[in-house]
Specification:
- The protein has 67 residues and is an alpha+beta fold.
- Helices cover 22% and strands 57% of the residues.
- It has one helix spanning 17-31; strands at residues 4-13, 35-48, 51-64.
- The protein has a three-stranded antiparallel sheet, covered by helices on one side.
- Strand 2 (35-48) and strand 3 form a beta hairpin.
- The longest helix is centred in the middle third of the chain and has 15 residues, at 17-31.
- The protein starts with a strand and ends with a strand.
- The relative contact order is 0.36.
């Protein structure tokens, strides 16, 4: 039997939502072991002078706890 835990993280990118997601997962796996999935909870952008300057993704990362 496995037991999992969920951690909420936020990541940003100046390029795209996909890049923000990739960066967030890459950073999470440096600290969390056994990452299994991520659920995108929210996406938002920062706008300056009519242009998107930053993409932000808030996600729930699921990882299995070691025995």
């Amino acid at each position: 039997m496995s037991v999992a835990k969920i951690s909420e993280i936020s990541a940003t990118s100046s390029q795209s939502f996909e890049d923000a997601l990739q960066q967030g997962i890459a950073r999470a796996t440096k600290t969390l072991r056994n990452v299994r999935s991520a659920w995108v909870k929210e996406q938002q952008v920062l706008v300056s002078k009519g242009s998107i300057t930053e993409y932000q993704v808030n996600m729930m990362v699921t990882f299995v706890i070691d025995d």
